[in-house]
TrEMBL record:
InterPro entries: Acyl_CoA_acyltransferase (IPR016181), Gcn5-rel_NAT (IPR045057), GNAT_YJDJ (IPR031165). Residues 9-99 form the N-acetyltransferase domain. It comes from the Bacteria. CDD domains: NAT_SF (cd04301). This is N-acetyltransferase domain-containing protein.
Length: 102
């Protein structure tokens, strides 16, 4: 099975955390980046999937990994990335994760 035909799961997502930023990545396939945490808030600012893997649910897997991480760490999310913003606003169950602006 080639990489283009491989089915990916959340277990394929690697989490890389630094003091001021992080990323969730499936190497060579896609990534979601964020700034923070800062006072328990992260800014999910970018999601990208390689052209060869678009339309396979990769962005959704990265989003699900972000939600899991945010819940584990008790972080709230500023959805600067339009994809993340749309996914969060469509889910009544995830509204508690959206950071409230002052």
């Amino acid at each position: 099975m080639s990489d283009q035909q491989k089915l990916f799961s959340v277990s394929d997502v690697t989490t890389e955390l630094a003091e001021t930023h992080g990323r969730l990545v499936i190497e060579g396939v896609g990534e979601l980046t964020f700034i923070g945490p800062n006072n328990g808030v992260i800014d999910a600012n970018h999601t990208v999937v390689s052209p060869n893997h678009q339309g396979q649910g990769i962005a959704g897997l990265l989003f699900n990994a972000l939600i899991s991480l945010a819940e584990q760490q008790q972080w709230q999310i500023i959805p600067s990335c339009s994809y993340i913003a749309k996914k969060l606003e469509r889910s009544d169950q995830l509204q508690h994760l959206i950071a409230k602006h002052n």
